[in-house]
Design a protein that fits this description.
- With 412 residues, the protein is α+β, with helices and mostly antiparallel strands.
- The chain has 3 domains: 101 residues, Gcn5-related N-acetyltransferase (GNAT) (Aminopeptidase, 3-Layer(aba) Sandwich), CATH 3.40.630; 159 residues, Gcn5-related N-acetyltransferase (GNAT) (Aminopeptidase); 105 residues, Nonspecific Lipid-transfer Protein, Chain A, CATH 3.30.1050.10.
- 23% of the residues lie in helices and 31% in strands.
- β4, α2 and β5 form a beta-alpha-beta unit.
Length: 412
C-alpha cells in the first residue's frame, strides 16, 4: 500500500538521507525545508520518493508572482519505475490549483526528459563563459565615468540587496532572495584556498552595480603561465558603464589562467562588446523549467507590452482543468476567460465567444510562450503550435514579448 503525504518532522532525517543518496547532494542542502512543504511516497514506513517545494516569489516581466520552487525530487533506486513521482505530481498540481496561490511551478531538471512528460518545459537558457583574461578587450571605446571599490558582505549586505532588487525589477525569472538564499548561492563560502571578493561600481557616490567573485588556485593547464581561476558568482549592473567596468576589472586579473562565469543570462551583452567574442568559449544548457498549474491565473499574473485579444486551445492530460479553449486579453493588466466549449468550471464561459482559436498547443508550449522563451512564430516553425489563423501570429509575438530574456541567477 502506497501513501502520498508530507513527511513528518521525525521523518525529515530520512528525507535528507534519501535525497543525498539519489541526487549526490549534501544533506545540509535540505536544512530550512519545512515538513509541510514536502510530499512523499511511503510504502508503509519506508520512504520511497521525496519531493518538496519552496514558496518563492518570482519577477514576471516586472510583476512579483508567487511560485512553487520544486526541489529534492528523488526516488530510491530500488523503488524506481513504480509511478510514484507521477502520483506525487498529480497530487501536488491539484493541491496548488485548489490553494489558488501559486499558478506556476519552477524547477531545475536533473534530466529534462523526466519533467517534460509531466507538463514542464524549459523556459530559460543559461550560458557559461570560460575566457583567458588576456582576451578581454572591447571592440569599441566607451566612457566609464565611475569607479570600482571593494565592499564587505557583512557591512554592506543591505547595499547588495538593494542593487539586486533594482536590477531584477523588470525582469523575468529572477527570484526574491531571502538572506538564506544569498548565503547558499551568491555569498556561499568559497572552495578551500579561494577568496570571496565583492566590488561595487559607483558614479558620484551612487552605487550602480556589483560583482561577486572568487579567486584562487585553478585546475592547472598545459605549459607555463598563470594558473589561478576567477569565478563570477553574480553580476548586477544598472547601466552600460557599470557592466564595462566589471569586465575591465576582470581583464586586470593577470595571474588568472581563466575567468569563469558559470551562469550567464541569454541576453548578456559580452558577445556584442568584446573584440574577439569567440574567446568567451561560450556554451549553453537548459535553465529553468516551468509548469503552468492554473492557466487563467498564470496568464493574468504578468503584464504584456501590447493590447491584444488572443484565443487558443490547450491540452493538459495531467491537469484537466487547464484543458480547453481560452481567450487572453493582454495589456498592462491582463484577463483570461474560457471560450464556449471549454471544460473549465472555474470561470463562466461566454456563450457568444464561439470563434475558433488562433492556435492550439500543449501545456508545455504554453509555458514557453508565456515566458517568451520562444515566440509564437518560432513555435509554429518548430511544429509546437497548430496554427488556425496565420495572421494572428504577429499579434501573439508582439503581445507576449518580455523586457528581458528569461533567466534565474539562483539555484533553489
Amino acid at each position: 500500500m502506497v501513501e502520498i503525504r508530507p513527511a513528518t518532522l521525525a521523518e525529515m532525517g530520512e528525507f535528507a538521507r534519501t535525497v543525498s543518496t539519489a541526487l549526490a547532494m549534501p544533506p545540509e542542502r535540505v536544512q530550512g525545508l519545512l515538513p509541510d512543504w514536502t510530499l512523499c511516497a511511503f510504502e508503509g514506513p519506508h520512504l520511497a520518493t521525496t519531493y518538496a517545494a519552496w514558496p518563492l516569489t518570482m519577477r514576471f516581466n516586472g510583476n512579483a508572482v508567487p511560485v512553487a520552487g520544486v526541489t529534492c525530487v528523488s526516488t530510491n533506486p530500488i523503488d524506481r519505475r513504480k509511478g510514484y513521482l507521477r502520483r506525487i505530481m498529480e497530487t501536488d498540481f491539484a493541491r496548488l490549483k485548489e490553494a489558488k496561490q501559486q499558478p506556476l511551478a519552477l524547477l531545475y531538471a536533473s534530466q529534462g526528459a523526466i519533467y517534460q512528460r509531466f507538463g514542464y518545459a524549459p523556459v530559460s537558457t543559461h550560458y557559461h563563459y570560460r575566457i583567458d583574461p588576456r582576451y578581454i578587450r572591447f571592440s569599441f571605446e566607451a566612457p566609464v565615468p565611475g569607479r570600482l571599490r571593494e565592499a564587505s558582505k557583512e557591512e554592506e549586505f543591505g547595499l547588495l540587496v538593494d542593487l539586486y532588487r533594482r536590477f531584477r525589477e523588470d525582469r523575468t525569472g529572477y527570484v526574491h532572495r531571502g538572506k538564506a538564499m544569498w548565503e547558499a548561492n551568491v555569498l556561499a563560502p568559497p572552495p578551500p584556498g579561494h577568496v570571496l571578493n565583492i566590488v561595487v561600481y559607483e558614479e558620484d557616490n551612487d552605487a550602480l552595480g556589483y560583482m561577486v567573485y572568487t579567486s584562487g588556485p585553478g585546475r592547472g593547464g598545459e605549459g607555463p603561465g598563470p594558473d589561478q581561476e576567477v569565478r563570477v558568482n553574480d553580476l548586477v549592473w544598472l547601466n552600460a558603464a557599470a557592466y564595462r567596468a566589471f569586465w575591465q576589472h576582470l581583464a586586470r586579473m593577470e595571474l588568472a589562467r581563466e575567468v569563469v562565469w558559470p551562469t550567464v543570462p541569454a541576453d548578456d551583452p559580452a558577445p556584442h562588446l568584446l573584440l574577439d567574442p569567440r574567446m568567451l568559449r561560450a556554451g549553453w544548457r537548459d535553465g529553468l523549467y516551468a509548469r503552468v498549474i492554473d492557466v487563467p491565473a498564470a496568464l493574468a499574473s504578468r503584464p504584456y507590452p501590447e493590447e491584444a485579444v488572443l484565443r487558443f486551445e490547450v491540452t493538459d492530460p495531467m491537469a484537466p482543468w487547464n484543458a480547453g479553449r481560452w481567450e487572453l486579453t493582454t495589456g498592462a493588466e491582463a484577463s483570461v476567460r474560457p471560450l464556449s466549449g471549454s471544460p473549465s468550471l472555474s470561470l463562466p464561459a461566454s456563450p457568444t465567444l464561439t470563434t475558433a482559436p488562433d492556435v492550439s498547443m500543449d501545456v508545455n508550449t504554453l509555458a514557453m510562450l508565456l515566458f517568451n522563451q520562444v515566440s509564437a512564430s518560432e513555435a509554429a516553425r518548430m511544429g509546437r503550435l497548430q496554427v488556425h489563423d496565420a495572421a494572428s501570429l504577429v499579434r501573439w509575438d508582439a503581445a507576449l514579448r518580455t523586457r528581458h530574456r528569461p533567466f534565474c541567477a539562483d539555484n533553489f
